Amino acid sequence: MTGIDISECARVFTLINDCKETIWPAITPGENFGNGGFALKPTESRVFQAPIGWSGRIWGRTGCNFNKDGQGMCQTGRCGTSLHCTASGETPATLAEFTLATPDFYDVSLVDGFNLPMSIKPMNGQGNCSRAGCDGDLRPNCPKELAVKAGGRTIACRSACDVFNTDQYCCRGNYGNAATCTPTFYSKKFKAVCPASYSYAYDDPSSIFTCGGSTTDYVITYCSGR
After folding, report:
1. Cis before 140? omega within 30
2. Per-residue pLDDT reduced to its tens digit, 9-39
3. What structural domains does the chain harbor?
4. For a 10 Å CB count at each end of the chain, is N or C smaller?
5. Whole-angstrom Cα distance, residue 172 to residue 174?
6. pTM here?
């Protein structure tokens, strides 16, 4: 026994919905986060704890309709037909990625596309602890060849890799390293709107953040720029 209370080393996550509509956050692995999914109405927030060693993804689903048994569908970000996610969601989706360690690593990734503005704000940490994410909304300015539409409006923006499936856009084959996989027309457009986000596979230096200290907590806000 070390005499250290594990709760003292846990990270507190607060998820806030600043969007105008209900969203359905999804988390994998989600044992500590509402079993991986729940509804979050405008202005609502939920608080969870995750232990050191947790490594996972948090995203938002939109346009969902679930029955009393937690079964249904979403327009974006769905993980099959379940309210509670146990696997990665469908692309495109804005992803918050975490590895809780010493220090913590975190980023907001647009590598799999964009469906919602989302930010990560560390609290009470030590070191750099910069704010990550995207306050801007890519949907109104999404290139038409990447746009996902419903009801005449763009509801998400796919990645160039997802649409064109080439080695250059997917950073594989001859493009599978940082020297050859460089920013493209599309990743530059993503980066211009979301400079503190991960826009393509080798965007590491400016887009992965660290935060030290045993008292760090995180606030994740959807539609944070509204």
Report:
1. no
2. 799 999 999 999 999 999 999 998 999 999 9
3. 6-222 (2.60.110.10)
4. N
5. 6
6. 0.93
